[in-house]
Design brief:
about 375 residues; alpha+beta; BirA Bifunctional Protein, domain 2; 11 helices; 13 strands; globular; binds aspartyl-adenosine-5'-monophosphate
């Protein structure tokens, strides 16, 4: 539908502009009445919101979430542009995964087996000796078997890799500056959307607080939360840590130096052989990003693969790139939907993506 008309003399609506319509053109009549209330007078269940998202984005609340997502991605690209990062696209149909076999989606690729890409990890690293600052805004496909409020089977990431770094600190600086830039952009450009959602988005100051994995474990143990040696932090542990850190005034913080037992094979190990240069970034008790410095030495990389029970033969295409000289490098993957959960206080990751792919949803 479309109309012609003049702006009304008296404006009653709090949002938008009122017109007095003189002509109304109906392009196409609906076959059935709308199945949902797009005005937003009645609260809609999350299941229904997901089912009819393509209609409900007319609802100001739903639309505000996705306008903010749109601005997050624009701001990220602006940040990369200003800081000389090069946008890349890497394959989504791949021969090997970087994030462990358990969450690989397998597919038939003519006569061979292939997988959907869990992460651009291997490819962004391979490029680093030729293009030393790259980024990709990319889907991650992960066969997460459980229905949780923070996992999708198709989610989106903002991935970065940068070369000639001194340590993972250089990468953490990029990540904290990027997030600050995004949060400032949303505060400045999405005031109306934040008001509609009733959110007061606090500015973030850099540098973000850093605590080591061991410090995090000590804090958790002092609260009676058991964390076994060499175990990744569980969702429950992350939440408790989030509360404790919030009480100390930190909404966002890095956890650094994860033990090798908990990480991917590609993170650089410290001299002690136990810890790595891997970090997580948590926002209000939710992991929104992981990253770190990588192992760039060919022999050490093969050793790490073997320690993780991987067969280097399956990664020849990747390992080859390390034979021709690879600078020290590192990067991160930042989950777009997780960042939105943190920023907007969304309770379920499904609120942050237009069309949901989870354990039960393959349509719409
Ligand atoms: P990781 O596996 O921690 O690291 O993923 C990076 C970030 O992506 C988001 N994320 C997800 N969001 C929703 N649903 C999922 N199933 C899901 N899986 C991941 C999270 C997470 O912090 N290659 C490394 C990154 C790197 O080192 O550069 C990686 O993928 O916000």
């Amino acid at each position: 539908m479309c109309f012609e008309g003049e702006k009304a003399e008296i404006q009653r609506s709090k949002r938008g502009v009122e017109y007095v319509a003189e002509k109304i053109y109906v392009y196409n009549k609906p076959i059935e009445p709308l199945p949902v209330d797009t005005i937003g007078k009645v609260p809609t269940l999350l299941d229904t919101r997901i089912r009819y998202r393509y209609l409900l984005v007319r609802n100001p609340l739903e639309k505000a979430i996705f306008s903010i997502r749109n601005t997050i991605l624009k701001a990220a690209r602006e940040y990369f542009e200003k800081n000389n990062f090069f946008e890349i696209h890497t394959p989504k149909i791949v021969a090997a995964g970087a994030e462990g076999g358990a969450t690989l989606f397998e597919l038939k690729y003519f006569e061979r087996k292939a997988y959907l890409s869990q992460s651009p990890q291997l490819y962004k690293q391979m490029l680093i000796s030729s293009i030393p600052r790259v980024y990709e805004i990319t889907p991650y496909f992960r066969a997460e078997k459980f229905n949780t409020t923070r996992h999708l089977n198709e989610s989106w990431g903002i991935d970065v890799e940068q070369g000639f770094i001194d340590s993972e600190e250089d990468v953490m600086n990029t990540l904290e500056n990027l997030i600050k830039y995004i949060v400032d952009s949303i505060r400045n450009r999405c005031r109306e959307e934040l008001e509609i959602l009733g959110i007061e988005l606090k500015p973030l100051s850099t540098p973000f607080r850093r605590l080591t994995y061991e410090e995090a474990v000590d804090i958790l143990r002092s609260e009676g939360i058991e964390v076994s040696e060499g175990e990744d932090l569980s969702e429950a542990a992350e939440k408790v840590l989030g509360k404790i850190m919030a009480e100390k005034g930190y909404d966002i913080y890095f956890i650094t130096k994860f033990p090798f037992e908990t990480t991917g094979f590609y993170y650089m190990r410290e001299e002690d052989g136990i810890h790595t240069r891997k970090f997580d970034l948590d926002y209000k008790g939710l992991e929104i990003s992981s990253g770190g410095q990588r192992e760039h030495r060919y022999e050490k990389l093969i050793e790490a693969m073997k320690l993780k029970g991987l067969n280097p033969d399956n990664f020849q295409f990747y390992l080859e790139a390390f034979k021709y000289g690879m600078p020290p490098h590192g990067g991160f993957g930042l989950g777009v939907e997780r960042l939105m959960m943190g920023m907007l206080g969304l309770k379920n990751v499904r609120e942050a993506i237009l069309f949901v792919r989870d354990r039960t949803r393959l349509t719409p």
